[in-house]
Amino acid sequence: MTRNRNLTPERRRRYWRITLASVVLMVVGAMALPLTGYLYVGLSDAYAQGGGAEDSNPRANYWRAVRAGQAGSSADGVNYSSVTGRPMPGSDALWLNRETENLINGDGQNWRQIRNRVIAVYGGWILFGLIVVMLHFYAIRGRVNLEDGASGVKVLRWTAWERFVHWVTAVSFLVLAVTGLSLLFGRSILIPLMGPEGFSVWAAIAMGLHEFVGPWIFTPGVALMIAMWLINNLPEKGDIEWWIKGGGIIGKSHPSSGRLNSGEKLWFWFIATFGVACIVTGVILAFPVEWAQTRSTMQLSNVIHGASALLWIAFWMGHAYIGTIGSEGSLEAMTTGYVDVNWAKQHHDRWYEEIADSAEHVTVQQPAGGATGEPTTAKA
Amino acid sequence: MARMKFLCDAERCIECNGCVVACKNEHEVPWGVNRRRVVVLDDGVPGEKSISVACMHCTDAPCAAVCPVDCFYTTDDGIVLHDKDLCIGCGYCFYACPFGAPQYPQKEAFGVRGKMDKCTFCAGGPAADNSDAEYEKYGRNRIAEGKLPLCAEFCSTKALLAGDGDLVADIYRERLTRRGGRPQQWGWDTAYVEKG
Ligand code: HEM
Ligand code: SF4
Ligand code: SF4
C-alpha cells in the first residue's frame, strides 16, 4: 500500500489499465478457448471429406443409401415388391396401401415433430393467447357505438343471396374448426374428459363431418364469396391512409372506407391465399388415393393444412369479434341485410356516397331506446 | 423383460415370400392388406438384395405419437399393438411410420379407409387372449401360446429372425464372425460360399 501511494498519477493510471486489460483478456480467453474444439472438429471433417471416402465401407454406404430412401448399389436401380396394395374398383392406377416397394421412408418422423411440436404447440398458444387479448381489448375498449345514434333510416348492404352464402360458409367453417381441432387437440384435451371410448366415437363423427362438409359445402361457399366480393376488395388509394390510422381501432378517428374497409380486405385476401391453400390441401387429405398421392405428399399437405387452418381460425376470431360484440350495427348488417345510414356514414363513408342516390332508403320506426332496439348505448 | 425384435439378414434372404404367405394364412389377413412384404432393392441389377419387412415395433413409435385417438400401446415385451375398437382409420399412423406398416381395408368409395391393420408380432390385441374376437380383429396370438411369430419360424433360410432382441443379436453376431469377411467383402458369397 505504501508503495502505491508513492506512484505518480500517470503510473497509477497505467497500472489500472494493465489490470483491466488482463481481466478482459482472461474473460475473453476463458470463453473463446473452449470454442477451438469446433475448429478442430471442422478441420477433421474437412480432412475426412477430402481424404477418406475411397476407404469407406461399401456395405455401410449401401445401407446408408437405403436408409435415406434410395435404392443402393447402382444409379438406376429401382426397388420392387411382389406384394402390392389393393386396386380400387374401376381403376388401374389407384390402389390403397401403396408404396410397398419403398423399404423405409424417414420423412414421417419429421412430419410427426412438425405436427406435434410446432403446429399443435404454437398454434394452440396463439389461439389461447388471442382469446385472452380479445377479452382484455373488449374490457378496455368496449363496443364501438354509433357516434350520432341511429338515424332510423336504413339502406341495403348485403343482398339475400350474399347473406345466404355468408352464413352457409360461416356455419360450415365452425363445423370444420370444431371437428378439425378435435382431431388435433382431442387427444390431450378431450380424452381426459370423455374417456378413450367416448372420444373415439366423437373423433369418428368429427372426421366424417370434416371430410364431408369441407369439400361439398364449405369449398363452394368460399369459392362463391371470393367470386362475388372480389370487386369490393381490390386495393384503392384510401387503403394506405386507413392503415396509417390503424383502422380507427384505437382512438376516435374514422378512416374513410369503401364498401369493405382495408381490414376486411386483408381478411378477404387472407382467405384467397391461405384459405385456398387450406382447402386445396384439405381436399388432398380427404381423398387419400384419388390422385395416387404418396405419403410424403400427405405429410406436406397435413402440415400446410394444419398451419393454415389454425391461422384461419385465429383470423376468424378477430372477424367474429368485430362483427358481433366489437361494433354496434355490424351483425345486423349480415342478418337483416340493412344498416342504418349513420352506420354507413361512420364506417363506410365512400360506399355510402356512391350508393346514396341510387339505393332504396327504408325508414323504420325509431325505437325509443336507440338504433338496434337495445337499451341505448349510443350517444343521443 | 425381453424386448422382441425382428431382424432380416439381407445376405440370406432369397425373396421366396414364404414369410408373407405364412403371415397371410396364420392371421387370415384380407386381400390387399399386407402385414409383411418382401422388398427387392435394386431389382434386376447385379447385387440386388431382398429384405422382408413388417412393423418393427419401434421404441418411441411415431405411429403412436400421431394417433388422434391414442389407441397404441406397447406390451411388456416391447411389442407395439393397437386397439381397433378405438381406431377411426384416419391414416396418420401410415404417414408417420417409416416402414409403411399400417394397412387399411377399403371401406367404400373415394378410398375411405377402414380400421388400421398391421403386424402384431403374432401377439393379438387388447381383446382376451385367443378369443374369437381377438382372432377376428388381430389374428392369432402365438405369443400367448408361447410361440414366436410364424413368418420367422417359416423362413427357409433363417434370414428372418424374431424373438428376444438379445438372442437375435447373438445369433446374428455369431453369423457375422463365422462369415469372417472384411467389410469390403459382401454379397451372397459371404453367407453361402464355404470359406477355404
Ligand atoms: C375443403 C375444406 C377442407 C377439407 C377437405 C378438409 C379436410 C381435412 C382432412 C382430410 C383432414 C385430416 C384428418 C382427417 O382425415 O379427417 C383435416 C384435418 C384438419 N382440418 Fe381440415 N379440411 C378442410 C377445411 C378445414 C378448415 C376450414 C379448417 C379450420 C377451420 C380445418 C381444420 C383442420 C384441422 C385443425 C385439422 C387437424 C390437423 C391435424 O390433426 O394435424 N380444415 N382436414
Ligand atoms: S407401425 Fe411403424 S412406426 Fe409404428 S411401431 Fe410399427 S414400424 Fe414403428
Ligand atoms: S388410422 Fe387408427 S391407429 Fe392409425 S393413427 Fe388413425 S386412429 Fe390411430
Defining traits:
heterodimer; A: about 375 residues; mainly alpha; Fumarate Reductase Cytochrome B subunit; B: about 200 residues; alpha+beta; Alpha-Beta Plaits; two-stranded antiparallel ribbon; two-stranded antiparallel sheet; binds protoporphyrin IX containing FE
Task: Explain how this protein is built.
The complex is a heterodimer of chains A (380) and B (196). The longest helix of chain A has 70 residues, at 160-229. Chain A has a single domain (61-106, 144-379), classed as Transmembrane di-heme cytochromes, Chain C (Fumarate Reductase Cytochrome B subunit). Chain A is built from twelve helices and five strands. In chain A, β1 (86-87) and β2 (95-96) form a beta hairpin. The N and C termini of chain A lie far apart (84 Å). By secondary structure, chain A is mainly alpha-helical. Chain A is flat, with a radius of gyration of 32 Å. In chain A, α6 crosses α8, α8 runs antiparallel to α9 (295-326) and α11 crosses α12 (349-355). Chain B is of the alpha+beta class. Chain B has a single domain (4-191), classed as Alpha-Beta Plaits. Helix content of chain B is 26%, strand content 14%. Chain B has helices at residues 18-27, 62-66, 92-96, 132-138, 150-154, 165-179, 189-192, and strands spanning 4-8, 36-41, 49-54, 72-74, 80-82, 160-164. Chain B has a two-stranded antiparallel ribbon. A two-stranded antiparallel sheet of chain B has the order 2-3. Chain B is globular. Chains A and B meet through α4, β1, β2, α5 and α6 of A and β2, β3, α2 and α3 of B. Protoporphyrin IX containing FE binds at residues 115, 173, 176-177, 180-181, 183-184, 207, 210-211, 214-215, 218-219, 278-279, 282-283, 285-286, 302, 305-306, 309, 312-313 of chain A.
